[in-house]
Design goal:
This protein has 358 residues and is an alpha+beta fold. The protein has one domain (3-356). The chain has 6 helices and 20 strands. The chain has helices at 15-25, 54-61, 65-71, 213-218, 239-243, 346-356; strands spanning 3-6, 47-51, 73-74, 96-99, 118-122, 135-141, 150-158, 165-168, 174-176, 182-184, 186-192, 204-212, 226-230, 247-250, 256-262, 281-289, 298-302, 313-316, 325-329, 338-342. The strands form 3 sheets. Strands 1, 4, 5, 14, 15, 16, 17, 18, 19 and 20 form a 10-stranded mixed beta sheet that branches. A hairpin with an 8-residue loop joins strand 16 and strand 17.
Length: 358
């Protein structure tokens, strides 16, 4: 695959990516028409978005972190059924596009770029050091009424023009509400470097949310991805300027050594562990890609992390400062030993383009 790398961010679409998207999806990467799409939007648009109301933003800003820690439950990571995902795109549907990350402020406690391989263990280094500095818990409310039902996933700060973008799973922003209907989750709150109730860099609320068309309309795990634009903090500082942001890649290699990160809570699929979701865990190893069958369009890695780890990054090409490239996010778990993730292709790139300059 041809690789296109951008070291600085400019507000334009790469020509190669635009050609691939136009050919494969019938639209340009940053169509203004889908900027504020909701469930009633044109179902042919590659990205579906939701603008968070000012009232909801204010509610989220007033949520106490300690309260969230006490009452939230992990969003259960799906076992999925045995049917193949819908609308699986060709893994070579466009040129490889990589956006580089930035470390932001000088990180504390920089460590080696590779820890010992494993299928699920406590992250051994400081939460304020890379990569935990950019990875955190994403809280949200799945109850559309005046009551609340808090859940949590994992998300990652991504470098972009707005310096305020996070990557997570589609099912962490849009899915089944407490009423049984499908809808956008509310009061999204991101806490980077979370550890045991501590929020060393504060909490960041959502202003715009976007997921793939295929997740929104079909709940297809082949495109279970989302990007969220956050507000600046109380001091007016953007997320990436505060904690740094990892890079991201689309239409890249379908294999290679990955580090998966997340905030899991132990369930029956992870016996022998007592993870409470208050600390970062990780898995490492080479992933597999599935071209057909029930796992078509997704990638698997040996990993025992469970609910709460959803949306956590798969990092590749990590530097000695533990800054890397997000290649996908934790999505579903059909068995105890394997964690699956969507392949980040042109559909995911369209969602990123929909968020990155807002």
């Amino acid at each position: 695959m041809r690789t296109i790398t951008t070291s600085t961010f400019r507000r334009f679409a790469l020509a190669g990516a635009a050609t691939a998207l136009a050919a494969g999806l019938g639209t340009a990467p940053v169509p203004a028409a889908h900027a504020d799409r909701t469930h009633s939007a044109d179902s042919s648009s590659p990205a579906v978005g939701h603008r968070v109301s000012p009232a909801e933003q204010r509610r989220a800003a007033n949520v106490d972190v300690k309260h969230l820690e006490r009452v939230s439950k992990p969003l259960r990571i799906s076992e999925r059924d045995g049917t193949a995902p819908t609308n699986v795109e060709d893994e070579t549907d466009g040129p490889t596009v990589t956006y580089r990350g930035t470390a932001g402020e000088a990180p504390a406690g920089v460590t080696s770029h590779r820890a010992s391989g494993n299928e699920g263990a406590l992250w051994p280094y400081a939460n304020t050091a890379n990569p935990n500095r950019q990875v955190g818990k994403l809280y949200f409310d799945i109850d559309p009424s005046a009551a609340v039902s808090w859940k949590h996933c994992t998300a990652t700060a991504i470098n972009s023009e707005n310096k305020s973008t996070i990557a997570t799973a589609g099912h962490c922003v849009y899915g089944t509400l407490s009423t049984g209907a499908r809808g956008w989750y509310q009061n999204l709150t991101f806490i980077p470097a979370f550890e045991n109730g501590r929020a060393p860099y504060g909490q960041w609320t959502a202003r715009y949310i976007s997921t793939t068309n295929n997740w929104f309309y079909n709940a297809s795990f082949a495109d279970d991805a989302a990007f969220v634009a956050l507000n600046r903090d109380s001091a007016g500082v953007a997320l990436v300027d505060r904690v740094g942001g990892h890079g991201i890649q689309f239409n890249g290699s379908t294999s290679g050594f990955k580090t998966s990160l997340g905030y899991p809570v132990t369930d029956s699929r992870w016996p022998g562990w007592t993870s409470s979701g208050n600390d970062l865990y990780y898995c490492q190893g080479d992933n597999s890609y599935y071209t057909s069958g029930p796992y078509a369009g997704t990638m698997g890695i040996y990993c025992r992390m469970t609910g709460g780890a959803s949306g956590g990054p798969w990092l590749a090409n990590t530097s000695s400062a533990w800054m890397g490239t997000v290649t996908t996010v934790n999505s579903y778990k059909p068995n105890a030993a394997t964690l699956f993730a969507p392949y980040f292709g042109s559909a995911e790139q369209a969602v990123f383009q929909n968020v990155r300059a807002r």
